[in-house]
Design a protein that fits this description.
By secondary structure, the chain is of the alpha/beta class. It folds into 2 domains: about 160 residues, Rossmann fold (3-Layer(aba) Sandwich), CATH 3.40.50; about 130 residues, Rossmann fold. It is built from 10 helices and 13 strands. The strands form 2 sheets. A 7-stranded mixed beta sheet has the order 1-13-6-5-2-3-4. The chain has a 6-stranded mixed beta sheet with strand order 7-12-11-8-9-10, with helices on both faces. Helix 4 packs across helix 5 and helix 5 packs parallel to helix 10.
Length: about 325
């Protein structure tokens, strides 16, 4: 088990910190600019800006790209496909080898508000698993993750999903245990969890949703969307747990409490259909435990949604 220290911090901690690197993402949603609007660039030595190739010619996307280029000055914007985690890894490695390989203290700010799950997990894997194993020195790594809470204009229940995708860096142990267990992060897509349930066929199942969340009505809508899945596949609400959207540290602690009694005889999967802070908690849980796998399914033919930020950030400090 990897020894991670995880705590929730405020935006004041970010304003008062100095970073060797900021990793930001030009997404499809207006909320992806919020952290960059308020952060001081003078406290950041280097910046990596990732932007999606998909929908890059839309007027809305161009405006977001222009904002990031203006905010971060001469930093090159890397437009890559959402599937290209290898380029994410390569750019992080190039930065470390050229810029930071003489120092043992590494402080990084990461805005994952509009990152794909795979991009986020690749960044976590690089700093928390790859570097500590490949660098012979005792590295002191601090990662501050920032997520801009948004309000969706309307709920859309998607019906078509890809085959299951295992998150890079969260593949779990090759050891096969006698039993299988699964934790399902629930959002507004009941078809996705059902498809993964049919793939995993777990002996034990648990559900997690965000509570408290951004809106009071969120919990009611999530439970309503997933009512059949909760009843049939989870065995009712007794295996359903509400965990706060605003605390990655709390969610991480509860995930580890859930899996602890099952670690010796279960292969454990976490299905990622809930909000990004819960996804980050799941990725960190898989990073800390060998026999935990994170997986999800992409929505087929979905269009970007213009999710506005509400002016609140979920900020998490992870140290190793």
């Amino acid at each position: 088990m990897t020894n991670l220290k995880i705590k929730d911090i405020s935006r004041n901690h970010v304003h008062e910190s100095e970073y060797d690197l900021a990793i930001v993402c030009c997404g499809y949603e207006p909320r992806c600019t919020f952290l960059s609007e308020i952060v001081e660039t003078n406290n950041i030595k280097d910046t990596i800006i990732f932007s999606y190739e998909e929908y890059s010619h839309s007027e809305h996307r161009r405006s977001i790209d222009d904002f990031f280029m203006t905010k971060w000055g001469k930093t090159k914007l890397s437009k890559i496909s959402s599937d290209r985690v290898d380029i994410i890894f390569q750019q992080l490695n190039q930065w470390f080898e050229k810029t930071h390989n003489k120092n043992t203290d590494i402080n990084v700010l990461i805005d994952y508000s509009s990152m794909t799950k795979s991009w986020l997990s690749t960044i976590v894997f690089y700093f928390l698993k790859y570097l500590p194993k490949t660098d012979n020195r005792q590295l002191n790594i601090t990662l501050d993750f920032s997520y801009s809470i948004g309000e969706y204009p309307a709920i859309i229940e998607n019906t078509q999903f890809t085959d299951p995708i295992i998150i890079p860096g969260c593949e779990g142990s090759p050891l096969t245990h006698e039993h299988k267990a699964a934790i399902f992060l629930l959002g507004f897509d009941p078809i996705g969890p059902q498809a993964l349930f049919n793939t995993i066929t777990p002996d034990r199942s648990y559900g997690v949703y965000a509570s408290p969340s951004a809106k009071d009505s969120y919990v009611e809508k999530v439970i309503s969307c997933n009512s059949e899945f909760i009843s049939v596949n989870l065995g009712g609400k007794e295996n359903l747990l509400g965990l706060p959207l605003s605390s990655v540290a709390t969610t991480y602690e509860y995930f580890n409490q859930i899996i602890m009694p099952m670690k010796d005889d279960h292969n454990i999967s976490i299905a990622l259909f809930g909000p990004k802070p819960h996804v980050l908690s799941a990725i960190l849980t898989a990073t800390s435990n060998l026999n935990v796998t994170c997986m999800y399914s992409k929505v087929v033919d979905s269009n970007p949604r213009l999710v506005q930020g509400i002016g609140e950030l979920v900020i998490t400090r992870v140290t190793i």
